[in-house]
Design goal:
heterodimer, A: 225 residues, mainly beta, eleven-stranded mixed β-sheet, 2 helices, elongated, B: alpha+beta, Glutamine Phosphoribosylpyrophosphate, subunit 1, domain 1, Alpha-Beta Plaits, seven-stranded antiparallel β-sheet, six-stranded antiparallel β-sheet, 25% helix, globular, Protein glxC (chain A)
Chain lengths: 225, 308
C-alpha cells in the first residue's frame, strides 16, 4: 500500500504520482489521506490501480478516469467521475450535483444519495445509486444505465436518447419525452448484474424502467440535414 | 462563483471563537471570488443600546469627532469605536432612525453597513484574509455570523457592492448567484418607497426581503415568496438577530453544503470551508434541498425545514 498524504504534498504532486503509474505497475494499491474536500483528486488516471480516498472530496474527483478503481470513504462534491471512460468509482457517502456527467464507460456507485443532474448527458457509463437522486437527472442521457434504488426527483430523463433508467422508488416527475417502459428479461439481466457489482441490496423485479419515447424533434428523420 | 459561509453556534463555549472560525471558513473560499469580502457577526448585545456600523474611504477625517456631531444633530448619546474604515456607533435603543437621519445630515458621504442590536457588518474590496485582518475578525466573539467572498458579475467592485447586505434591523443577506430580473424589481421596489442604493442585483434581493417583511411577512414567508418573485440563480444565507436561514432556487446550480453537530450548524459553498470546524469528522453533512427554506434559531424551536 502506497500512501499519499495531502497534508504533506500538493494536489499536483499527488495526481502526477498517480499518473506516473504504468499499465504494468506493481504498485496497485494507493491511499490518499487528508483530502479535506480538495478539488480534482485522482483525476485523469489511466492505469489498473486502486485508489482509496480517506475522506470527503471537492469538485471533479475521479474525473476522466480510465481503468482505475477509486474508493471515496466520504462524500463527493460536484462532478464526481465526470466524463469517466472506464474503471470504477465507489462513493461511501453522498454525491453532489452532476455525478457521472457525460461519462462514456465504467461503473459509478453512490452508496448514499446523489443530488441534482446525476448522469446528465451520460454516454455509456453505468451509475448505481443506493439512495435517492435529485432533479433533472439523466437529462439528455445518450446511453448507459442509471439505477436508482431509492426515489428520483423532478424531470427525470428529460430529452433522453437511448440510456436506460431503472428506479425502484417513486419518481417525482418525468421529463419531456421520458416514459415508463416494459421491463423485459434482458433488462432484468442487466439490472441483476449492476446490482450485484455495486453491492446493492435490491431485487431487479422491484424496479421500473424508463426510457425515451423518441417523440422529440431530434428523432424525426425529416429534421435531419 | 462567489463563496458564502455561515456559522450558527449552539454551544456557548464556542462563542469566543466565532470570529476566528468564520474568518477561517471564508479565507478557504477565497478562490471562489477574490474581489471583495465581508462578514456579518452577531455579538455583544448591550442593554438599552443598538449599533450602527458606518464606513468611510477617508476614516481619519470623517470619523474625527463624528460621535459628537451625531449626538448634537440627533439629540441622543452616541458612542463610537473605530476599526479601520469602519466605525461602530452605539446609540440608545429606538434611536437608530434618528441617528441615521443625523448621519445623512452630518456627512452624506458616510455609508451605512449595518444597523441593529447585535449585528455588525464589516466589508471591503480585497481578499478575505486582508478584510478579516483589517477588522481583526479573528478575535471577535459572537453567537452566529455569515460571510461572503465575491466574484463580481452584475455590478461594480465597490464596498457597497460587497456582501453581506443589511436588509433591516439585525437582518442581513449573502448571495451566491445572479438575479436576472433585478432591474425591473428595483424599479418596482423604488416605487414602493424602498431605498436601493446601487445597481447590484443582491441589494435588490435584500430590498425585496425588507419590503416583504415591512408588509407583514415573516422572514420564512419572505424567503418562500422569493422563490417565485426572484428570477435567476441564488443560494441565499440570511442572518437574523436570533438565527440564520438558507434557501436555494429551484434549479440549485449554486453549490451548498451544510454540517450539524451538537455544537453548531454550519454552511459552506463547498465542504472545504467546513473541514477545520471542531468535530466535523462526525458531523451530519448534507446538501440543502432546492426550493426549501431552512432556518435555525436560538429563540424558537431549533430547526425549521419548510418545503416551499
Amino acid at each position: 500500500m502506497q500512501t499519499l498524504d495531502m497534508a504533506d504534498i500538493e494536489l499536483r504532486e499527488m495526481n502526477a504520482t498517480l499518473h506516473a503509474q504504468a499499465e504494468n505497475t506493481n504498485q496497485t494499491a494507493w491511499e490518499i489521506k487528508n483530502p479535506r474536500g480538495a478539488h480534482a483528486i485522482a483525476c485523469g488516471l489511466d492505469a489498473p490501480i486502486e485508489v482509496t480516498v480517506k475522506g470527503s472530496t471537492g469538485y471533479y474527483c475521479g474525473g476522466m478516469n480510465k481503468q482505475a478503481t477509486i474508493n471515496i470513504k466520504g462524500s463527493a462534491g460536484p462532478g464526481v467521475a465526470e466524463n469517466m471512460m472506464s474503471g470504477t468509482v465507489v462513493i461511501e457517502g453522498d454525491a453532489s450535483q452532476y455525478a457521472g456527467a457525460t461519462g462514456h464507460g465504467g461503473l459509478l456507485v453512490i452508496k448514499g444519495n446523489a443530488s441534482s443532474r446525476c448522469g446528465i448527458s451520460m454516454k455509456g457509463i453505468d451509475i448505481v445509486v443506493h439512495g435517492n437522486i435529485g432533479h433533472m437527472s439523466a437529462f439528455m442521457a445518450q446511453s448507459g444505465n442509471l439505477v436508482v434504488c431509492g426515489d428520483a426527483g423532478e424531470a427525470l430523463g428529460d430529452s433522453l436518447y437511448e440510456a436506460r433508467l431503472f428506479v425502484r422508488g417513486s419518481v417525482k416527475s418525468l421529463g419531456t419525452d421520458c416514459v415508463e417502459k416494459e421491463m423485459r428479461p434482458e433488462h432484468l439481466e442487466i439490472l441483476a448484474d449492476l446490482l450485484e457489482r455495486s453491492g446493492a441490496d435490491a431485487k431487479p423485479e422491484e424496479f421500473k424502467r424508463y426510457g425515451s419515447a423518441r417523440e422529440l424533434y431530434t428523432f424525426k428523420i425529416d429534421n435531419a440535414y | 462563483m462567489c463563496g458564502i459561509v455561515g456559522l450558527f453556534l449552539k454551544d456557548k463555549s464556542l462563542e469566543p471563537q466565532l470570529g476566528s472560525l468564520l474568518a477561517g471558513m471564508l479565507v478557504t473560499m477565497t478562490d471562489r471570488g477574490p474581489d471583495s469580502a465581508g462578514i456579518a457577526i452577531y455579538s455583544n448585545e448591550t442593554k438599552d443600546q443598538s449599533k450602527i456600523v458606518v464606513q468611510s474611504d477617508t476614516p481619519k477625517t470623517d470619523f474625527d469627532g463624528l460621535e459628537v456631531a451625531l449626538a448634537n444633530a440627533s439629540g441622543v448619546t452616541v458612542g463610537m469605536e473605530v476599526s479601520s474604515t469602519h466605525a461602530v456607533l452605539s446609540v440608545p435603543n429606538g434611536a437608530i432612525d434618528a441617528v441615521r437621519t443625523a448621519i445623512a445630515a452630518v456627512n452624506p458621504a458616510l455609508r451605512i453597513m449595518s444597523r441593529g442590536d447585535t449585528l455588525e457588518i464589516y466589508k471591503e474590496v480585497g481578499l478575505p484574509k486582508d478584510v478579516a485582518s483589517r477588522f481583526a475578525i479573528d478575535v471577535m466573539s459572537g453567537s452566529h455570523g455569515i460571510g461572503h467572498t465575491r466574484m463580481a458579475t452584475e455590478s461594480a467592485v465597490t464596498t457597497m457592492g460587497a456582501h453581506p447586505f443589511n436588509t433591516g434591523n439585525d437582518q442581513c443577506l449573502v448571495h451566491n448567484g445572479s438575479l436576472s430580473n433585478h432591474n425591473s424589481l428595483r424599479r418596482k421596489l423604488r416605487r414602493e418607497g424602498i431605498h436601493i442604493e446601487t445597481e447590484n442585483d443582491t441589494e435588490v434581493g435584500a430590498a425585496y426581503l425588507t419590503w416583504r417583511m415591512q408588509n407583514g411577512a415573516t422572514l420564512g414567508e419572505a424567503l418562500e415568496s422569493s422563490l417565485t418573485d426572484l428570477d435567476g440563480f441564488f443560494t441565499f444565507v440570511v442572518g437574523t438577530k436570533d438565527g440564520f436561514g438558507v434557501v436555494r432556487d429551484p434549479i440549485a446550480c449554486k453549490p451548498a453544503v451544510m454540517a450539524e453537530t451538537e455544537q453548531y450548524v454550519a454552511f459552506g459553498s463547498e465542504y472545504r470551508a467546513l473541514v477545520d470546524l471542531p468535530g466535523i469528522e462526525t458531523a451530519r453533512v448534507w446538501e440543502p434541498e432546492p426550493a426549501t427554506v431552512y432556518f435555525w434559531s436560538h429563540s424558537e424551536q431549533p430547526i425549521k425545514e419548510e418545503a416551499a
